[in-house]
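dude i think i finally got it to work??
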Amino acid sequence: MIYLNCAALCPTLPEAREAVERTLAEGGRYLSSEAGHEWSRRTIRDCRRKVGALLNAPDASTIAFTANASTALHVALASLRWKPGETLLTTTHENPSIMRQLRALEHEGVRLRAIDPASPETFLNEVRTCVNRGGVKAVVISHVSHVDGRVFPIHDVAAMAGAAGCLVIIDGAQAVGHIPVDLRASAFDVYFFTGHKWCEGPPGTGAMAVHEAFFRHPDCRTPAEDVPAEPAASRFEIGTHNIGLIAGLATACERRSRMDVAATPQTAFREQAKAVLGETQRCRIVEWQGPHAPGILTFTGAPGMDHRRLVERLEADCGIIVKLFAEYPEGIAPAIRLSWSSRTDQRDVRTGLSNIAQRLAS
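look at this
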């Protein structure tokens, strides 16, 4: 199999799997004893530190663990009081699981405004216009588009939104472990991500960094009482931890922290893909005139092409796994997304691109 769908799910690092098993075995020696509670607190604290290091978080105590990115957004949105007439600003490039949660707020009278990011300049101009007009309670956008890998100018957005008194919530699912992330650069209220994508951690893991200002927001309704010796962010950690999975995520994040994410071979893969697919003259690369994350490239075939059939035949005939966008997002024709991790074999990339180009040309 040639796997070119890492933006959906990356293979879990062996070290992360080992950390899950090792930590569960160690915890099994303590169970729910006083020594076990202390071991658990110490282990979680160490995991917060490792995840915080990958995010360049100013304070590791702001890290809360969740089951995935969608769960992180759910608890963040549920922690706020929403009033009819308030506006929530987002983009047309958000993941369907995120959009479903945002649209659910429309039942409470919240207005959802989704900007189509045609270019960095027009995108920022629309954000500026919306937040300065007033009525925007929160901005919820991706750091990196799951559609085509475009990198949104989140630090500029945070500056504009923050100055207008808006909450800033960033979905880093396609960014963390893929491109450098620096939470010191801007005061995001919430930044969340999932472990099973570019971090190469175990499924069922994720984390969120919650700025202290979020809890001081007048519409924040998280419980006021704190658990002694526990950070405020732990209010978002509901129920008993799966400490094995958390250790697996932390191990994966620690490994990514040791890598120079900006110097991975993914950039060369992307340029190679653009060159090979461009030679067919029967596809169009979907991108904007701005920065793109190196592990994602999306294209559309010639008018009238049956993209679904192409994807099915690539898997059945060649064992090539890619992502099909049938009718999503709004305003973009059916498209196919290719994505590869820093561990993807270069020969697989070459073979996969060659087979895709041949079928596009036929």
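The mean pLDDT is 92.
im so relieved honestly
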